[in-house]
Predict the 3D structure of the following.
Amino acid sequence: MTLFDINNIAFETIGYQISYIELIGTLFGLISVYFASRTNVLTWATGIFNELFLFILFFQVQLYADMFLQVYFFIVTLYGWYNWKQKPKKNSITSTDFKSKIWIVVAVVLGTLISGFFFTSIHLYLPQYFKTEAAFPFADSFVMVLSIIATVLLAQKKIETWYLWIVVDIVCVFLFYKKGIAFLALEYFVFLGLTTYGLLNWKKQLNNG
């Protein structure tokens, strides 16, 4: 058994066994979101570790859409890191226009449907890699699509990123609890508080800008 095996338990609390992979991924996730709420560039560096460990975790619990999402997160993390570090003054917090908001809604709906149908049958398309049927493919896809858009908005310092992350957090609390990774579900409950703080903090900066 390796450190990255979900059955390798770090400790047990209130009858729930927390694996090392879930624990490490969760801690880096909390740190990354905290830095994001403070508009600190370290959110991207700590986010890389979160993405790596969650990629491994989601594969083991058959949340394949969330697994692939971590690959996307890694790519956008590099973009966001560069964008925040190299051009901080040119990228102050702004808001998207009405037309962009409409496109976001359309992208979420279409993206969720397309991805949901794909992951419903991924074990049939690629049986050599995915031997078990995907769990909650449409809810998982909704989280994936919303997170993709929210990450781009975060990299561009658009305040709407926090509204999307709040929705993601609410869905993930129920999704991960239902899937039996309760510690990660608890993390997303904490994320809900951090994203609300991030929204208020960014609104303050936007109004003062």
Observations:
- Strands lie at 9-13, 16-19.
- The mean pLDDT is 89.
- The two ends are 52 Å apart (CA to CA).
